[in-house]
Amino acid sequence: MTKTHDGVTVIDHPLVQHKLTLMRKKDTSTASFRRLLREISLLLCYEVTRDLELTTTEIDTPMEPMDAPVLAGKKLVFASILRAGNGLLEGMLDLVPAARVAHVGLYRDHDTLEAIEYYYKAPTNLTDRLVIAVDPMLATSNSATAAIEKLQNSGAKDVRFLCLLAAPEGIKAFRERLPNVPIYTAAIDSHLNDKGYIVPGLGDAGDRMYGTK
Ligand code: URA
Protein backbone atom coordinates (compact mmCIF):
# COMPACT_ATOMS: atom_id res chain seq x y z
CA MET A 1 0.00 0.00 0.00
CA THR A 2 1.22 3.51 -0.79
CA LYS A 3 0.18 6.45 1.37
CA THR A 4 0.20 9.93 -0.15
CA HIS A 5 0.59 13.06 1.92
CA ASP A 6 -3.10 13.98 1.83
CA GLY A 7 -4.47 10.98 3.69
CA VAL A 8 -5.01 8.86 0.58
CA THR A 9 -3.92 5.23 0.56
CA VAL A 10 -3.47 3.68 -2.87
CA ILE A 11 -3.99 -0.07 -2.70
CA ASP A 12 -1.43 -1.14 -5.25
CA HIS A 13 -1.61 -4.90 -4.66
CA PRO A 14 -0.86 -6.67 -7.99
CA LEU A 15 -4.14 -8.60 -7.96
CA VAL A 16 -6.09 -5.38 -7.42
CA GLN A 17 -4.27 -3.66 -10.28
CA HIS A 18 -4.76 -6.61 -12.64
CA LYS A 19 -8.48 -6.88 -11.92
CA LEU A 20 -8.92 -3.13 -12.24
CA THR A 21 -7.39 -3.22 -15.72
CA LEU A 22 -9.87 -5.91 -16.78
CA MET A 23 -12.71 -3.80 -15.38
CA ARG A 24 -11.58 -0.73 -17.29
CA LYS A 25 -11.68 -2.46 -20.68
CA LYS A 26 -14.75 -1.35 -22.60
CA ASP A 27 -15.40 -4.85 -23.96
CA THR A 28 -15.62 -6.45 -20.51
CA SER A 29 -19.14 -7.88 -20.18
CA THR A 30 -21.60 -6.94 -17.44
CA ALA A 31 -21.23 -10.42 -15.91
CA SER A 32 -17.42 -10.20 -15.85
CA PHE A 33 -17.48 -6.62 -14.55
CA ARG A 34 -19.71 -7.68 -11.65
CA ARG A 35 -17.60 -10.73 -10.84
CA LEU A 36 -14.39 -8.67 -10.93
CA LEU A 37 -15.92 -5.98 -8.73
CA ARG A 38 -16.90 -8.60 -6.18
CA GLU A 39 -13.40 -10.10 -6.23
CA ILE A 40 -11.66 -6.74 -6.01
CA SER A 41 -13.90 -5.60 -3.15
CA LEU A 42 -12.65 -8.52 -1.03
CA LEU A 43 -9.08 -7.36 -1.58
CA LEU A 44 -9.89 -3.71 -0.92
CA CYS A 45 -11.80 -4.62 2.24
CA TYR A 46 -8.83 -6.65 3.43
CA GLU A 47 -6.60 -3.56 3.14
CA VAL A 48 -9.03 -1.02 4.60
CA THR A 49 -9.46 -3.21 7.69
CA ARG A 50 -5.76 -4.07 8.02
CA ASP A 51 -5.21 -2.01 11.19
CA LEU A 52 -8.37 -2.97 13.10
CA GLU A 53 -7.79 -3.47 16.80
CA LEU A 54 -7.72 -6.96 18.24
CA THR A 55 -8.41 -8.27 21.71
CA THR A 56 -8.27 -11.86 22.96
CA THR A 57 -10.86 -14.35 24.04
CA GLU A 58 -10.37 -17.63 25.85
CA ILE A 59 -11.23 -20.65 23.71
CA ASP A 60 -10.65 -24.38 23.89
CA THR A 61 -8.85 -25.95 20.95
CA PRO A 62 -8.97 -29.78 20.79
CA MET A 63 -5.52 -29.64 22.45
CA GLU A 64 -5.82 -27.07 25.24
CA PRO A 65 -7.30 -23.69 26.21
CA MET A 66 -5.77 -20.58 24.66
CA ASP A 67 -6.24 -16.82 24.52
CA ALA A 68 -7.03 -16.27 20.84
CA PRO A 69 -7.29 -13.00 18.90
CA VAL A 70 -10.68 -11.58 17.89
CA LEU A 71 -11.74 -8.18 16.61
CA ALA A 72 -12.18 -5.66 19.41
CA GLY A 73 -15.05 -3.21 19.72
CA LYS A 74 -18.44 -2.96 18.12
CA LYS A 75 -19.38 -4.41 14.74
CA LEU A 76 -18.24 -2.44 11.70
CA VAL A 77 -20.68 -0.46 9.59
CA PHE A 78 -20.41 -0.50 5.81
CA ALA A 79 -22.22 2.45 4.28
CA SER A 80 -23.14 1.95 0.64
CA ILE A 81 -23.65 5.05 -1.46
CA LEU A 82 -26.41 3.92 -3.83
CA ARG A 83 -26.50 2.56 -6.32
CA ALA A 84 -22.93 1.79 -7.37
CA GLY A 85 -21.77 1.36 -3.75
CA ASN A 86 -23.70 -1.90 -3.60
CA GLY A 87 -21.19 -3.44 -6.01
CA LEU A 88 -18.44 -3.00 -3.43
CA LEU A 89 -20.69 -3.77 -0.48
CA GLU A 90 -21.50 -7.33 -1.50
CA GLY A 91 -17.92 -8.55 -1.56
CA MET A 92 -17.13 -6.72 1.67
CA LEU A 93 -20.01 -8.52 3.39
CA ASP A 94 -18.57 -11.84 2.19
CA LEU A 95 -15.44 -10.95 4.16
CA VAL A 96 -17.14 -9.40 7.21
CA PRO A 97 -20.56 -11.06 7.37
CA ALA A 98 -21.43 -9.57 10.77
CA ALA A 99 -20.97 -5.97 9.62
CA ARG A 100 -23.95 -3.64 9.92
CA VAL A 101 -25.05 -1.84 6.78
CA ALA A 102 -26.14 1.71 6.05
CA HIS A 103 -27.62 2.81 2.71
CA VAL A 104 -27.38 6.37 1.49
CA GLY A 105 -29.31 7.07 -1.70
CA LEU A 106 -27.92 9.94 -3.72
CA TYR A 107 -28.17 10.77 -7.37
CA ARG A 108 -26.13 13.25 -9.35
CA ASP A 109 -28.05 16.09 -10.90
CA HIS A 110 -26.69 15.84 -14.44
CA ASP A 111 -26.57 19.61 -14.91
CA THR A 112 -25.14 20.81 -11.60
CA LEU A 113 -23.39 17.51 -10.65
CA GLU A 114 -24.70 18.15 -7.11
CA ALA A 115 -25.70 15.16 -4.96
CA ILE A 116 -29.42 14.94 -4.17
CA GLU A 117 -30.45 12.63 -1.31
CA TYR A 118 -33.46 10.37 -1.83
CA TYR A 119 -32.90 7.61 0.76
CA TYR A 120 -31.18 7.17 4.10
CA LYS A 121 -31.25 4.19 6.46
CA ALA A 122 -28.48 3.44 8.95
CA PRO A 123 -27.94 1.53 12.19
CA THR A 124 -28.97 3.74 15.10
CA ASN A 125 -25.73 3.71 17.10
CA LEU A 126 -23.00 4.85 14.73
CA THR A 127 -20.99 6.71 17.36
CA ASP A 128 -18.80 3.88 18.68
CA ARG A 129 -18.34 2.08 15.38
CA LEU A 130 -15.91 2.32 12.51
CA VAL A 131 -17.96 3.34 9.48
CA ILE A 132 -16.55 2.51 6.04
CA ALA A 133 -18.39 4.43 3.32
CA VAL A 134 -18.11 2.87 -0.13
CA ASP A 135 -18.64 4.12 -3.67
CA PRO A 136 -16.55 2.84 -6.61
CA MET A 137 -15.89 6.28 -8.15
CA LEU A 138 -14.60 9.40 -6.37
CA ALA A 139 -15.28 11.87 -9.17
CA THR A 140 -16.47 15.35 -8.14
CA SER A 141 -16.75 13.96 -4.56
CA ASN A 142 -20.17 15.61 -4.16
CA SER A 143 -21.93 12.29 -3.39
CA ALA A 144 -19.20 10.94 -1.13
CA THR A 145 -18.92 14.09 0.96
CA ALA A 146 -22.72 14.52 1.19
CA ALA A 147 -23.11 10.88 2.28
CA ILE A 148 -20.33 11.07 4.84
CA GLU A 149 -21.60 14.37 6.27
CA LYS A 150 -25.02 12.74 6.64
CA LEU A 151 -23.42 9.81 8.50
CA GLN A 152 -21.45 12.23 10.68
CA ASN A 153 -24.61 14.20 11.45
CA SER A 154 -26.13 10.88 12.53
CA GLY A 155 -23.28 10.34 15.03
CA ALA A 156 -20.47 8.68 13.06
CA LYS A 157 -17.07 9.82 14.36
CA ASP A 158 -14.66 7.30 12.89
CA VAL A 159 -15.23 7.20 9.13
CA ARG A 160 -13.13 5.92 6.22
CA PHE A 161 -13.97 6.20 2.54
CA LEU A 162 -13.24 3.36 0.13
CA CYS A 163 -13.43 3.61 -3.64
CA LEU A 164 -11.98 1.92 -6.69
CA LEU A 165 -10.94 4.98 -8.69
CA ALA A 166 -10.37 8.58 -7.67
CA ALA A 167 -9.87 11.76 -9.69
CA PRO A 168 -7.36 14.34 -8.37
CA GLU A 169 -10.14 16.97 -8.45
CA GLY A 170 -12.36 14.72 -6.33
CA ILE A 171 -9.61 14.12 -3.78
CA LYS A 172 -8.95 17.86 -3.49
CA ALA A 173 -12.63 18.74 -3.02
CA PHE A 174 -13.09 15.85 -0.56
CA ARG A 175 -10.13 17.03 1.51
CA GLU A 176 -11.45 20.58 1.66
CA ARG A 177 -14.76 19.40 3.13
CA LEU A 178 -13.55 16.40 5.14
CA PRO A 179 -9.92 16.94 6.15
CA ASN A 180 -9.83 14.01 8.58
CA VAL A 181 -11.52 11.19 6.68
CA PRO A 182 -8.95 8.74 5.23
CA ILE A 183 -9.46 7.75 1.58
CA TYR A 184 -8.57 4.31 0.23
CA THR A 185 -8.49 3.76 -3.53
CA ALA A 186 -7.01 1.33 -6.05
CA ALA A 187 -5.88 4.14 -8.39
CA ILE A 188 -5.77 7.89 -8.87
CA ASP A 189 -6.57 8.68 -12.51
CA SER A 190 -5.67 11.65 -14.70
CA HIS A 191 -8.63 14.03 -14.47
CA LEU A 192 -12.39 14.59 -14.70
CA ASN A 193 -13.95 15.44 -18.05
CA ASP A 194 -16.55 18.20 -18.45
CA LYS A 195 -19.37 15.74 -17.70
CA GLY A 196 -17.79 14.77 -14.38
CA TYR A 197 -16.51 11.38 -15.56
CA ILE A 198 -13.13 10.06 -14.51
CA VAL A 199 -10.58 9.80 -17.35
CA PRO A 200 -9.36 7.26 -18.32
CA GLY A 201 -11.65 5.66 -15.73
CA LEU A 202 -13.99 2.83 -16.56
CA GLY A 203 -17.16 4.64 -17.60
CA ASP A 204 -20.31 4.71 -15.51
CA ALA A 205 -19.76 2.14 -12.77
CA GLY A 206 -23.49 1.70 -12.05
CA ASP A 207 -24.33 1.19 -15.72
CA ARG A 208 -21.47 -1.24 -16.17
CA MET A 209 -22.38 -3.38 -13.16
CA TYR A 210 -26.12 -3.43 -13.81
CA GLY A 211 -26.11 -3.37 -17.63
CA THR A 212 -28.31 -0.27 -17.78
CA LYS A 213 -26.69 1.17 -20.88
N1 URA B 1 -19.40 7.96 -11.67
C1 URA B 1 -19.11 6.93 -12.50
O1 URA B 1 -19.76 5.90 -12.48
N2 URA B 1 -18.06 7.08 -13.35
C2 URA B 1 -17.31 8.17 -13.41
O2 URA B 1 -16.35 8.23 -14.20
C3 URA B 1 -17.64 9.25 -12.54
C4 URA B 1 -18.69 9.10 -11.69
Describe the structure.
- The structure is a single chain.
- The radius of gyration is 18 Å and the shape is globular.
- It contains 6 helices and 15 strands.
- The strands form 4 sheets. An 8-stranded mixed beta sheet has the order 1-2-12-10-8-5-6-7, with helices on both faces. A 3-stranded parallel beta sheet has the order 9-11-13. Strands 3-4 form a two-stranded antiparallel ribbon.
- It has helices at 14-24, 30-48, 85-95, 142-153, 168-177, 205-210, and strands at 2-3, 8-10, 54-60, 65-71, 77-82, 100-108, 115-121, 130-134, 137-138, 158-162, 165-166, 183-185, 187-188, 191-192, 198-199.
- The protein is an alpha/beta fold and 213 residues long.
- The protein has a single domain (2-50, 74-196), classed as Rossmann fold, CATH 3.40.50.
- A hairpin with a 6-residue loop joins strand 6 and strand 7.
- The structure holds uracil (URA).
- Uracil binds next to helix 6.
